[in-house]
Amino acid sequence: MEITDRQQEIILSSLEIITEGGIQALTIKNLAKKIGFSEAAVYRHYENKVQILLAILEYFRKNSERLFDGGSASEGSTIEKLETIFRNHFIKFSEHPSLVSVIFSEEIFKNETKLTEAVTKIMDKNINSLSTILEQGQVKGEIRDDVKARHLAILVMGSLRMFIKGWHMANHKFDLQGEGSSFIRSVTTVIKKS
Q1: For the chain, what is the HEC assignment?
Q2: Which residues contact 175 (CB under 8 A, 6 or more apart)?
Q3: Averaging pLDDT over each range in 66-80, 88-102, 112-126, 136-150, which range is the top one?
Q4: With contact defined as beta carbons under 8 Å apart, do 59 and 7 qualify?
Q5: What is the pTM of this model?
Q6: Cα angle for residues 94, 100, 106 (degrees, 5° grid)
Q7: What is the pLDDT of residue 125?
Q8: 33, 140, 172, 194: which sits with the fewest CB atoms below 10 Å from its CB?
């Protein structure tokens, strides 16, 4: 389902609020004030805060899926494809740091089944996409094949998650794109076939 321009505005304004004050600052009242219209107008697009967070997660899912699909379809070696995918993720997180607050806040969502399910779906999709790319790299002899592709995918995603979360916890004090490129080269050195 495509989102309207107004829904897109609500999503992006919500991300700004989260960047400025954390996920707790995202309320319908604060959102309406930031956008400049009534709370009732927000409710016409989203029933509650959970629906807005679900929309943010869906926004990220679609972007991430595009990045994985684009990277896997690109020319080059498996390592080059992985570097492209993760470089593009670093760019997206640099442009919207509050996405980290939402995507990596599953502990906040633990009592909200719909949010937990949405994050799980994103994680599973990303692991599956990465596993497929790594399997293709194993067939080509570019990626080590003494470890299952799915296990390598989990190792890669877990290390990248820690790296991005560290950037976020450090209040974005280092260059995610620059340091991220160096970090992904280290990760790919570990998984490529010698």
Answers
A1: CCCCHHHHHHHHHHHHHHHHHCHHHCCHHHHHHHHCCCHHHHHHHCCCHHHHHHHHHHHHHHHHHHHHHHHHHCCCCHHHHHHHHHHHHHHHHHHCCHHHHHHCCHHHHCCCHHHHHHHHHHHHHHHHHHHHHHHHHHHHCCECCCCCHHHHHHHHHHHHHHHHHHHHHCCCCCCHHHHHHHHHHHHHHHHECC
A2: none
A3: 136-150
A4: no
A5: 0.84
A6: 170
A7: 92
A8: 194
